[in-house]
């Protein structure tokens, strides 16, 4: 594997999780998080993700990874459309009811999710459009990096498919370390599902739409169910 591929893996395994943890500490340390702060957060995160995608795509092409290996060549045929629509509806519904379930619970995990919702999710119409842009950005950029580049680079060196799925999913889960242990586990499992559809369809398209749909639903269900009010209040 080329040295720059190893450097990208180092960034994904160490730098991205560390950056997420640091940003989480800063978020939770702020007693008030207004619209201005949210818009800055959305903007900087969008910029970071597109820059990361650009660098990874540049080095992937320089390293000889083809568009086919990256999951970029298959068009939206009937099979892809079917997987995309069914998966987006199913995962979006799951996200909605999962957040509603968390909203009725007490404990460390629901409390962390409430704090994250208050600081990360849109609470006003002004915040909704930038958040939607962030959700779409995450779907495109993170899926290209983790289900496109990571899986293609690992497969190129002859690693078994099941191990490729595991490694890419764990890296994806670690990128969400700011959500705590349950967040890491949940996103690792979700990443495995995304990886499976990437292998089965030989396309990134379904996973991109699924990812964006989950984040968009979270932007609606989070403020609705994870409000500042505690269960029973």
Describe this structure in words.
The chain is mainly alpha-helical. The chain has one domain. It contains eight helices and no strands. The longest helix has 32 residues, at 125-156. Mean pLDDT is 91; it is low at 229-233.
For the structure shown, list the relevant keywords.
mainly alpha
Give the SSE map.
Layout: H1 3-29, H2 35-62, H3 78-103, H4 108-120, H5 125-156, H6 161-174, H7 180-201, H8 205-225
Helix pairs in contact: 2-5, 3-8, 5-6, 5-7, 5-8, 6-7, 7-8
Quick summary:
With about 230 residues, the protein is mostly helical. The protein contains 8 helices and no strands. The longest helix is centred in the middle third of the chain and has 32 residues, at about 125-155.
- Provide the helix percentage: over 70%
Distance between the termini: 56 Å
Strand content: under 5%
Structural class: mainly alpha
- Total domains: 1
Q: How confident overall, as mean pLDDT?
A: 91
Please give the count of helices.
Answer: 8
Low-confidence stretches: 229-233
Q: Helix-strand pattern, N to C?
A: HHHHHHHH
Major pleated sheet: none
């Amino acid at each position: 594997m080329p040295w720059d591929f190893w450097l990208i893996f180092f960034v994904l395994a160490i730098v991205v999780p560390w950056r997420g943890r640091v940003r989480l500490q800063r978020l939770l340390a702020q007693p008030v998080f207004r619209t201005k702060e949210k818009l800055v957060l959305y903007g900087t995160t969008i910029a970071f993700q597109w820059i990361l995608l650009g660098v990874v795509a540049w080095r992937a092409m320089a390293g000889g990874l083809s568009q086919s290996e990256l999951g970029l060549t298959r068009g939206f045929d009937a099979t892809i459309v079917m997987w995309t629509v069914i998966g987006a509806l199913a995962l979006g519904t799951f996200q909605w009811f999962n957040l509603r379930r968390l909203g009725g619970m007490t404990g460390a995990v629901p409390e962390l999710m409430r704090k994250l919702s208050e600081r990360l999710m849109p609470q006003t119409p002004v915040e909704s459009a930038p958040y939607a842009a962030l959700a779409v950005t995450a779907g495109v950029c993170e899926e290209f990096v983790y289900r496109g580049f990571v899986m293609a680079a690992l497969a190129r060196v002859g690693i078994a498919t099941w191990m490729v799925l595991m490694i890419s999913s764990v890296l994806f889960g670690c990128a969400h370390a700011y959500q705590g242990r349950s967040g890491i586990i949940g996103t690792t499992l979700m990443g495995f599902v995304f990886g499976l559809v990437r292998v089965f369809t030989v396309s990134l398209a379904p996973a991109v739409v699924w990812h964006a749909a989950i984040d968009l639903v979270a932007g609606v269900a989070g403020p609705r169910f994870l409000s500042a009010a505690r269960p029973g209040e």
